[in-house]
Amino acid sequence: MKRNTNKDNEERAKTEKKANKNARKKKKRTARNKATDVRIYRGYEIDHYMFKAKTQVQKENTPKDMERTSNQKIRSYKLKDLEARAKYQKELEKSMDKALTEGILDWEKYKETIREVAKKIQTLQGLSSKTVYDETKLSDMTIPESIAYSKNSMCIIPFEKEHEVEVNFQK
User: Fold this and answer.
1) Residue 88 lies in a domain
2) How many domains does the chain fold into?
3) What pLDDT shows up at residue 35?
4) I need a labelling partner for 155 at 20 to 30 A (CA). Which of 48, 72, 103, 131 fits?
């Protein structure tokens, strides 16, 4: 019986080696290192050589199906304003109470609630406070084609009632 177990062990080892060898073949290398400068110098006592090489290391390619999430930061300097801070605290307490009553205490849910409150209060980085143009403002800003495409034409575009900007159109 001992011989049979040894043979079985040998066969298992062979099949494992084949499986490992096939797995290594299938695995492709995604990053390559390049040698940019290779030099060989004589050693101090000339009994050896020094090999010096500069290499360029590239990062491994990330899988295409991997999700890319943006790491948005909360603008803490906006919370220095007392009104904004109080509003943020109230909203955060309300949303945390909701999360606790639902019984969900994992980190992802906690992070989502903080980001949602920051979006409401506009302290999340990435949100812009750009003016939204409606149809009336855009219609006021349009220039007739006869003026816009004529040679050396000058026109005044009213942006708001307080400011007027002079624009030169030249080819």
Assistant:
1) yes
2) 1
3) 81
4) 131
